[in-house]
Design brief:
heterodimer, A: alpha/beta, Rossmann fold, 2 domains, 5-stranded mixed beta sheet, 12 helices, B: about 190 residues, Pyruvate-ferredoxin Oxidoreductase, domain 3, 6 helices, 7 strands
């Protein structure tokens, strides 16, 4: 382990991209992710890469589409409204099965919203924000170091599955500065050759990258079946989560990203008070780590979901726990965040009133 | 927010160097191997408005990076004190830059450090180092980190961009440490 440095989440993510071999970035400014393009504007040229401040979010995602088709490791980042603008391009990239990384440092919504942190884009990220039946691999980091590490993995998973990967962060994670170990990049798997890349076909058969795939016989059916098979394979192979104090937990908190780390603090304090609380913090949001919730549902008496939205992630927790235990909800929308003190209060009241505790919405 | 961590809020007007103070504290903590999470309030900040930065320091993994009720606070001007003065926890420490704060904090449940940071900086020949004067007093009293760590953080932060500022800032740190008073507050 080398000397740690103090970096903001946005900067850490940008550095991780460069370390992982990303050599093309296109983006358009938006708070609270501006440190990403700011950092890459000087760092990428230093590493022999290309940084483009595009004329719009739509242009940026389509530049990434082109760079991915050319075989480059490439990335774009934005925040909520900007990510909405990119959705058509993301769907096209998913259809063409091109590897790239898209970061969404979420801010308050809907609409223009505000520049505070939020988790209100969960549905858009994990259920498919653009048109058509496609999936993104979606990652929900909670710490600056984890954001750094996952960004490197994101490039590998993108290449491994020929699929766009989304880093679903939030404004706070992008803005906080924490000690960071700049770990050197090591591929997590043997990566396939990019035999799709459009590198000039002199001396070889030409390659075609396309999003309009109409086979004469079956239209799009075959391509869709093929994509779904790939998504099933990703679901079987990819599941990351943190479990904390769950062995004997009676009250289980489910939370991801920034909410997840805050909830962990609440679990720690609840344990100090003798309350058997535990935490499952999904790290892959798609595929959703169902197994730990299925297991927990056999043991815990109740689940409390905490998220920085009015209730999106909670639905996946209900599905994964198969509605076998009551699921309570504590959400903060509009760009606000839950405090560990608030979560602890709710856990204490759940403990004190096992039968009457009602779903709370603030 | 809760025990086992120390929450710090630094506030002043835009341009007073609030962010630099937060950055230096965070870097010094990092050098001492502590867990630290620093944050600068961002948004529609305007010239003359208040700027604030927060730092959470902990021996354990930091869960909540937000500071709602600081244990320690550095207030560089009057509007900041009006905004954050009441949020400091009982038993906490609050430093006031008395050059810019005329109405002092009427609380006897917190320790108050008074330092005329802006005047002392003026005497050093550069108003910009008022923040470091305040930091010098703050570190001398709270012992949050070793003085040496702050000195190294100053060298770390300024030597690349602004090497001529290193010595002046180190001097400002000394001056702050030598010129504060622990106020006895009558309520």
């Amino acid at each position: 382990m080398g000397q740690k440095v103090l970096l903001k989440g946005n900067e850490a993510m940008a550095e991780a991209a460069v370390q992982a071999g990303c050599r093309f970035f296109a983006g358009y400014p938006i708070t609270p992710q501006n440190e990403v393009p700011e950092y890459l504007s000087w760092r990428l040229p230093q590493a022999g890469g290309v940084f483009v401040q595009a004329e719009s979010e739509v242009a940026a995602i389509n530049m990434v589409f082109g760079a991915a088709a050319g075989g480059a490791r490439c990335m774009t980042s934005s925040s909520s409204p900007g990510i909405s603008l990119k959705q058509e391009g993301i769907s096209y990239i998913a259809a063409a099965e091109l590897p790239c990384v898209i970061a969404n440092m979420q801010r308050g919504g809907p609409g223009l919203g505000n520049i505070r942190a939020s988790q209100g884009d969960y549905f858009q990220a994990v259920k498919g924000g653009g048109h058509g039946d496609y999936r993104l691999i979606v990652l929900g980091p909670a710490y600056v170091q984890e954001l750094y590490d996952l960004t490197m993995h994101a490039f590998d998973w993108a290449d491994l599955y020929r699929n766009p990967v989304m880093i679903l962060g939030d404004g706070i994670l992008g803005q906080i500065a924490e000690p960071l170990d700049i770990r050197p990049y090591r591929p997590i798997a043997e990566l396939p050759a990019k035999d799709f890349a459009l590198t000039g076909c002199a001396g070889r058969a030409s390659r075609v990258v396309k999003t309009l795939i109409l086979q004469p016989a079956d239209g799009l059916v075959h391509h869709n079946e093929y994509l779904q098979q790939k998504y099933r394979r990703i679901e079987e192979e990819l599941s990351l989560y943190e479990e904390y104090e769950t062995e004997d937990a009676e009250i289980l908190i489910a939370a991801y990203g920034m909410s997840g780390r805050i909830a962990k603090g609440a679990v720690r304090r609840a344990r100090q008070k003798g309350i058997k609380a535990g935490l499952i913090r999904p790290i892959t949001l798609w595929p959703f780590p169902k197994e730990p919730f299925r297991r927990a549902a056999e043991r815990v008496s109740r689940i409390l979901v905490v998220e920085m939205s009015s209730g999106q992630f909670v639905e996946d927790v209900q599905l994964a726990s198969e509605c076998r235990v009551p699921v309570e909800f504590f959400g903060k929308g509009g760009g606000w965040y839950p405090l560990d003190t608030e979560i602890l209060e709710i856990v204490e009241s759940m403990q004190a009133n096992p039968s009457v505790w009602a779903t709370r919405k603030d | 927010m809760m025990n086992n961590s120390i929450n710090i809020t630094i506030a002043g007007s835009g341009g007073q160097g609030v962010v630099v103070v937060g950055n230096l504290i965070a870097r010094a903590c990092l050098m001492e191997g502590k867990n630290v999470s620093g944050w600068v309030a961002y948004g529609a900040e305007m010239r003359g408005g208040t700027a604030n930065a927060t730092v959470v320091v902990s021996e354990e993994e930091i869960a909540c990076p937000f500071v709602e009720t600081p244990d320690l606070a550095i207030m560089l001007n009057q509007p900041s004190l009006e905004r954050f003065g009441s949020s400091v926890v009982a038993g906490g420490v609050i430093l006031l830059n008395t050059s810019m704060i005329q109405r002092l904090l009427e609380r006897d449940d917190v320790e108050q450090l008074h330092v005329a940071a802006t005047e002392l900086a003026h005497r050093l020949g550069n108003l910009k180092v008022a923040n470091i004067v305040a930091l010098g007093a703050f570190i001398d009293h709270t012992r949050l980190v070793a003085k040496d760590s702050i000195c190294r953080a100053i060298e770390d932060l300024f030597s690349a961009k602004n090497p001529q500022m290193v010595d002046l800032n180190l001097k400002a740190l000394e001056v702050g440490a030598d010129h504060y008073t622990l106020a006895k507050v009558q309520t």
